[in-house]
Amino acid sequence: MSAIKLVLVFLLWGTISRADDCNLSQAEIEEIQSYQDVVNQIIEATTNGQFKGETFEELAVFVDKFGARLSGTQALEDSIDYLLERMNSTFDIENVHGEDVQVPHWERISEWAEMVEPISAKIPLLALGGSVSTPEDGIEAEVVVVSSAEDIHNNYHDAVDGKIVVINYDYHSYGVSVSHRYDAPVAAANHGAVAVLIRSVTDFSMDSPHTGQTTYEDGVTKIPAAAITVEHANMLQRRQERGENVTIRINIQTQTLADATSRNTVGEIVGSEKPNKVVIVSGHLDSWDVGVGALDDGGGAFISWYALAVLKSLGLRARRTVRSVLWTAEENGMAGVKAYDELHKDDLGDFIFVMESDDGTFTPLGLRFIANTKGTCILTEILKLLEPINATQAVRSTSGVGSDITIWKDVLPTGSLYNQNDNYFWYHHTKADTMEALDPDALDRATALWASVAYIVADLNEDFPRALTDSGFYASANVFYVVFLSLFGVWFY
Ligand SMILES: [Zn+2]
C-alpha cells in the first residue's frame, strides 16, 4: 500500500469514528455527570456502609429458609410470601404485591441409571424438566451415541429403533448447545428410540449432571429424557467407537400435575414527577429443583429488589418510577413474564428501560443492552460514573439480553448485568447451585450498579429514548458512513 493510501485509510478511520461518536449535548453530558455524587453515595452504602454484605446475607437467609423453588411448589409460594413481607415491612418499598400467574407443575420423584454391559457401573443422571416417566420397573436397552438430532436422521435412521439414544455433541456456547436439550426427545422418538440421554449443557464438568427444560410435540411419542454428565457421555462414545455393545438400565419417575397459581413479585419506588413512566429491574425467583437457585437466579432477583431497598434508605426517589419485578416460572417456559406482558399490554408504552440479571452476579463489568445510538450514548455516559467499582463497560447488543425480558427485545430498550461470568455454567442447573457459587463483594457491586443505572435512567430530564432505531443526527451519520465507505471502497480498489 502506498504511503498516500495509508494516510487516507487513517483519515477514513477518523471519519468513521467521528460519525459513530455520540452527539449528546454538553448540557446532557453535564446532567449525567452531575449524578456522580449520588453514585458515590450508593457505592459507599453498598460496598462499605450499612448495606455491605447485605445482599448476600439476605439471599443466604432466603435460600436456607426455602431451598429450591420449582414452579408449582409450595416452597416457591412460601418464598414469595416471605419476600413480599420483607420488602414491604422491613424495607418500606412501595406498592409491594404479587400478580397471579398460572404456572406448570412438574415434579421429579426418583431417578437412577446403571450400565449393565459390558461392565456394571452407576451412571449419574437428572431427568429433564417436563420428562415423562419410564415404566415402573424401568427400561433396559442398548445404547447408540449420536452427535445431534440431525445425526440421528442422517446417519442412524433405523439404528436407534428400540434403543436408548445418547446425544454427545461438541459444546459451543450455551445459547447454541442448549438446543440439543430441547430437540432430542422428539427426534429420538421419531426414529423409534425408547429413551434419550443428553450430554449436560456446560463447558466444564466435575461429573455432575445439569438439568433444564425439554420439550415434546403433540403426536410424537413422549419418551423419558435425562441429562448425563459430560464424562459419562464421552465414556459411552469411546465404547461405541471401539465397537463395544453397551446396555443401560434407567428408571425415571416424574409427575405432571395440574397448573398451579404462582405470582410475579412486584415492588416500586413511585416516581415524583412522572409516576406512570417506569424503569424495571428484574430477575427470576423460581429455580430448578436441584441446588437452591442461589446463582440461578437468586443473585439476579436479590440485586433487583435490594437496589430498591438501597435507594429507599438513601432517600433517592427518581422522577419516574423504579420498579422491581421478580418473575416466576422462568425455568420451565417463562409463564411469569408472558402473563406480565399480557396483563400490562396497555402500559408497555410507559416502560422506558427494562433490565434483568440472569447470567450470574459475579464481578460486574458494566451493562449489556439493546438501545438505539442515543440510548447507547446515554448508558455509556452513565456507566462512566461506575468507575469507582470498575464497572464502566457499555456493551451494545443486537441479540436478546436477559432471559424473561427477551420477550421485549424488539419492542423497547432492555439491559442485562454484564459480569465476569466465565464460570456461570459450571454450576447452572446442578446441585452445586448454592451460596458457594456467589461472592458477597461482587453482589454488593452488582447491587450498586443496578441501583445507580435504574435511578439515573428514571431521573433524567428527558425520557430515555424508547425507540430501538435511530433518528436525526445518528441516522444521517450512519447514512454518511455507508455512502462514504462505498465511495472510498470503489476508489481504493
Ligand atoms: Zn435463570
Describe this entry's structure for a reader.
The protein is of the alpha/beta class and 493 residues long. The protein folds into 3 domains: 3-20 and 474-492, no CATH class; 26-104 and 259-459, Zn peptidases (Aminopeptidase), CATH 3.40.630; 119-245, Glucose Oxidase, domain 1 (3-Layer(bba) Sandwich). The protein has helices at residues 3-20, 26-33, 36-47, 54-66, 74-90, 149-155, 174-177, 179-190, 230-241, 294-313, 335-343, 373-384, 424-427, 440-459, 472-492; strands at residues 94-117, 121-122, 125-127, 139-146, 164-167, 195-199, 225-228, 247-269, 274-284, 320-327, 351-356, 364-370, 393-396, 414-419. Strands 1, 2, 3, 4, 5, 6, 7, 8, 9, 10, 11, 12, 13 and 14 form a 14-stranded mixed β-sheet that branches. Helix 4 (54-66) packs across helix 14, helix 6 runs parallel beside helix 8 (179-190) and helix 10 crosses helix 14. The radius of gyration is 25 Å and the shape is globular. The protein starts with a helix and ends with a helix. Mean pLDDT is 94; it is low at 14-19. The site of zinc ion has 6 residues, from helix 10.
